[in-house]
Amino acid sequence: MINEVSQCVESINGVKEGRWKATLTFYKPMFRADQAVPAEYPRDFLGISLPEQPNRYYFIIRSQKIVLEADSSIQMIMEKLQSYKSRVSLTFEGFQYQLGDFQLRVGKVAPSASENLRGIVFEVEYLPLSSMEKSRQILDGFVEIWQEAMSKRSLPGHFMHIEPNFAEFGLSDHYTSQHTAVQYATVMAQLISAVQTAQGVRN
């Protein structure tokens, strides 16, 4: 299916620029079963590495609506401290395309230790503008064109347009990598919800 989606991008004149990869990790605190988790400790959080910022690492604490940016060496520090442990990692991996003023990324989403496909992510960025409000109409128009192109192919499933409430995380209208990190966290939550719903239907 990922090949079909890539072909669809190429059919609307997208030019392949190379591969891209992002990794999202779900962390839980390291406490013994008989230990209570201190109230100030987040019960879980997400760590995200992004291809456009190889020297940075992003944390999302969803319960408190916090996004943090750190040096990528923080991962080694966490490994040594052993206060939080990686539980699950998801890999977003595929191809990057240029289409006029748009940068597109198409990739599969799968657990890092497995090839089992969990979903397909399609990321669109309008390069001339960093204001989300000013670029919204342009992006909405592009998504319509994309949905029309995809409707001509009989593929299983459907694409969902996901836009988090960035203001909840204290983020402004000026788009940054922190916004991207929040979007990946939102995509992961949506995937988990979809998988749980599908399992519920089967049960």
UniProtKB/TrEMBL annotation:
Question: Where in the cell?
Answer: Nucleus
Keyword RNA-binding (UniProt): no
Keywords assigned by UniProt?
Answer: Activator, Nucleus, Transcription, Transcription regulation
Which InterPro entries does this chain map to?
Mediator_Med20 (IPR013921)
State where it is primarily located: nucleus
Mind telling me which residue stretches traverse the membrane in this protein? none
For the keyword RNA-binding, the answer is no
Q: Name one Pfam family in it.
A: Med20
Q: Name one GO molecular function term.
A: transcription coactivator activity
GO CC, any one term: mediator complex
Q: Name one GO biological process term.
A: regulation of transcription by RNA polymerase II
Q: Which family does it belong to?
A: Belongs to the Mediator complex subunit 20 family.
What does the protein in this record do? Component of the Mediator complex, a coactivator involved in the regulated transcription of nearly all RNA polymerase II-dependent genes. Mediator functions as a bridge to convey information from gene-specific regulatory proteins to the basal RNA polymerase II transcription machinery. Mediator is recruited to promoters by direct interactions with regulatory proteins and serves as a scaffold for the assembly of a functional preinitiation complex with RNA polymerase II and the general transcription factors.
Q: What assembly does the database describe for this protein?
A: Component of the Mediator complex.
What is the name of this protein?
A: Mediator of RNA polymerase II transcription subunit 20
Species the sequence originates in: Vitis vinifera
Phylogenetic lineage: Eukaryota, Viridiplantae, Streptophyta, Embryophyta, Tracheophyta
Gene symbol here is MED20
